[in-house]
């Protein structure tokens, strides 16, 4: 076995184990730590695919910012500490969903058509290629996304301000 295959195997096992642990742990901080392991292993997979920019963004945005925001959100909200019991049917349905997802992904990966591959190798200047595509071909979706994020930010501020004013009355 080659070193790349072993690295892929280790990173994929860590990602899957982190996701499973995230769902089955009971303490919030342990769940977030498992989620960070998943995010970091996915970043490692991006690095193996020669997508260094996406790997660094994965580490900075997801492993750092999103995890911290989730922890703050959980810590600042009122929630009931009791968890609902997992029934047998629920576990069975989750298992069936996982198996169906795995079957669909297996079928999709094995039937990929690479006939329209690009002439430029992806591992050379991939950040430049993404920037050129983002700001030329996909400029309209990029700008719509930025406006949508701005609207979501303003809406969350309005909602938070409304709740704050109701609590002070």
UniProtKB/TrEMBL annotation:
The keyword Transcription regulation does not apply. It holds the Pfam family Oxidored_q3. Its EC number is 7.1.1.-. InterPro entries: NADH_UbQ/plastoQ_OxRdtase_su6, Nuo/plastoQ_OxRdtase_6_NuoJ. It comes from the Bacteria. Keywords: Cell membrane, Membrane, NAD, Oxidoreductase, Quinone, Transmembrane, Transmembrane helix. The lineage of its organism: Bacteria, Bacillati, Bacillota, Bacilli, Bacillales. It comes from Ectobacillus antri. This is NADH-quinone oxidoreductase subunit J. The keyword RNA-binding does not apply. It is a multi-pass membrane protein.
């Amino acid at each position: 076995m080659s070193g790349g295959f072993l690295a892929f195997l280790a990173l994929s096992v860590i990602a899957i184990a982190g996701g499973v642990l995230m769902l089955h742990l009971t303490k919030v901080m342990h769940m977030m730590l498992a989620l960070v392991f998943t995010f970091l292993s996915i970043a490692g997979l991006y690095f193996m695919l020669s997508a260094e920019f996406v790997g660094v963004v994965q580490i900075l945005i997801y492993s750092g910012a999103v995890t911290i925001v989730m922890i703050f959100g959980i810590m600042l909200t009122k929630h009931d500490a009791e968890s609902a019991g997992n029934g047998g049917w629920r576990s069975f349905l989750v298992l069936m969903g996982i198996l169906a997802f795995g079957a669909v992904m297996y079928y999709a990966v094995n039937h990929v058509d690479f006939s329209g591959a690009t002439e430029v190798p992806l591992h050379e200047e991939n950040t430049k290629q993404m920037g050129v595509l983002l700001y030329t071909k996909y400029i309209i979706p990029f700008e719509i996304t930025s406006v949508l994020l701005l609207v979501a930010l303003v809406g969350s501020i309005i909602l938070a301000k409304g709740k704050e004013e109701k609590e002070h009355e």
